[in-house]
Amino acid sequence: MLDDEDRTPRAASSEPGTDVTPTPLASEPGDNAVTARSTNDFGNVCEGRQILNAAAYSGATGAKAYVFANSPDRPAFWSSTSIASSRPYYAENMESVSVVGCLEFVGGGEGTPLECKYTGVGQRITIDYTASRYKLTFYAAKTAEKIGDGGTVSTPAKRCPTFLSSYNKNTMTAYASPDTAVIAAAMEKFLS
Fold first, then answer.
1. Start-to-end C-alpha separation, the chain
2. Contacts of 34 (CB under 8 A, 6+ apart)
3. For the segment 98-156, what is each residue's pLDDT rounded down to a tens digit?
4. Quick one: which of 10, 31, 53, 183 has the fewest CB in 10 Å?
5. Over the stretch 81-108, which tens digit does the pLDDT of each residue have?
6. Using an 8 Å Cβ cutoff, are 126 and 116 in contact?
7. Is residue 155 within a helix (H) or strand (E), and if so which, with residue range?
């Protein structure tokens, strides 16, 4: 008979007389798991957080995916990258997403920036527009486990953009964003 202090459930062992404490499976939700309420919540996967209501990953072929990128000025903020609805990995709803591609800014190889002149609110400003590089990594959305590498995505700065959505106001620098065609090619290579 067991006393009240020894009522802890234990897993059976193949050797008599030994107790084994079960270890959680990688697919079990961790303390940092979230339930996605919008597509932007899937960016949490890039920070190692599981998405509880994501589709289970059962292989790259035919998987639906989202892609997120960070920036040198906001490395912990992952913004959504648009995917054309004609792409085979395009997700019509977030419950079908099983893969998240994360484009992480890695720096280096920026080269000489272009001096781009813009007219702000009543003033002229010069922004150094700089090439950049991103590392593309694929994760299973439901478990946040790494499932593949997409290589390096280079973003050249060949000409000044007509419009800059953001720039660093302290350094007056903007980095080129990853090209959607290059991202699409990397995604299709992994997901086919």
1. 58
2. 41, 44, 49, 50, 51, 52
3. 999 999 999 766 678 999 999 877 789 999 999 999 999 999 999 999 999 999 988 88
4. 31
5. 989 999 999 999 999 999 999 999 997 6
6. yes
7. strand 146-155
The b-or-e profile of 80-105 (16+ CB within 10 A means b, else e) is ebebeeeeebebeebeebbbbbbbbb
Q: Minimal CA–CA distance to 125: which of 133, 135, 134, 115?
A: 115
CA distance linking residue 178 with residue 65, whole number of Å: 17
The DSSP symbol for 185 reads H
* Structural tokens at position 37: 């309420």
Whether 36 contacts 51, CB under 8 Å = yes
Adjacent-strand bridge partners of 130 = 175
Place of tokens 């090209």: 179
